[in-house]
Design brief:
The protein is of the alpha/beta class and 263 residues long. Helices cover 41% and strands 18% of the residues. Strand 7 and strand 8 (173-176) form a beta hairpin.
């Protein structure tokens, strides 16, 4: 466990998020569910638990939440399938919780359209840090005043034109003019933000993983490739011949934006 002094410094540096954050914990192990609930409450957030995907679906139908923690190994419908169904119908934050096992299990987080994942056993500070990172990416209003000022003065482009897509980087909104119902996940939007900071310049897979808040010793390059593939399928008219998100062999990925004013 981390020393208390280090934990106190971490809490001071991260700036507490807004009160009223509601998190649903989908975990069939009662002891683990209680442990996570205690961690959530210690941050000033509001936890709710469900022991199966079916129960969680019922809870979500009756109440709103900012984020869902989903255990991979659930009775009945697996956590992976539940996360996929959840992502298909909502933009809620999703953090997968997996047991330390095969490489396939350890990389399933981004591949199931989850925003992040944690491997058991985990440090409490790691879990809360990942939750905060997802909440801040998904809900920009939850960022600290210091972060907001930093973004405002950074000189980053305020918006992007990418084919049929209009990307508002300030308000974190993405609109597809040809298919208004089509949306981007938090991870997909974060990838766009990272690439947009240095348009026409390659960004390495390692840099992308680090900026997404992932630990590069646990995630691999394939995670970035899968995320890029998902984004291309939404942004590019022909994902096999991408115009906007291109690969530079040995260098990483490059974003080419359309010229012109935002509508």
């Amino acid at each position: 466990m981390l020393e208390q002094a280090a934990y106190d410094v971490f809490r001071e540096d991260t700036d507490l998020l807004n009160d009223g954050i509601r998190i649903l914990i989908v975990e069939d192990d009662q002891d683990m569910a209680e442990l996570i609930s205690d961690l959530i409450e210690a941050e000033g957030w509001q936890p709710r638990t469900a022991s199966s995907a079916e129960e969680a679906a019922g809870v979500l139908a009756r109440a709103t939440f900012h984020l869902v923690l989903v255990d991979h190994n659930l009775p009945g419908m697996s956590g992976r399938v539940f996360a996929q169904k959840l992502r298909a119908s909502t933009e809620i934050g999703i953090v997968m919780v997996t047991a330390a096992g095969s490489a396939a299990e350890r990389v399933l987080g981004l591949e199931t359209a989850a925003d992040d994942y944690v491997v058991k056993p985990f440090e409490p500070i790691e879990l809360t840090a990942r939750i905060k990172a997802v909440l801040r990416r998904l809900h920009p209003a939850l960022k600290s005043e210091k972060e907001a000022q930093g973004q405002a003065s950074s000189g980053d482009p305020a918006g992007l034109l990418l084919g049929d897509w209009v990307i508002d980087l300030v308000n974190r909104k993405a609109m597809c003019r040809s298919h208004p119902s089509r949306t981007l996940t938090s991870s997909e939007f974060s990838l766009l933000e990272i690439l947009a900071e240095t348009p026409n310049e390659p960004v390495s897979r390692t840099t992308i993983l680090e900026r997404l808040g992932a630990e590069t010793d646990r995630l691999i390059d394939r995670n970035v490739d899968v995320l890029v593939l998902r984004l291309r399928r939404k942004i590019e008219r022909n994902p096999d011949l991408p115009r906007h998100i291109k690969t530079r062999r040995g260098k990483g990925y490059i974003l080419h934006r359309d010229q012109g004013a935002l509508p």
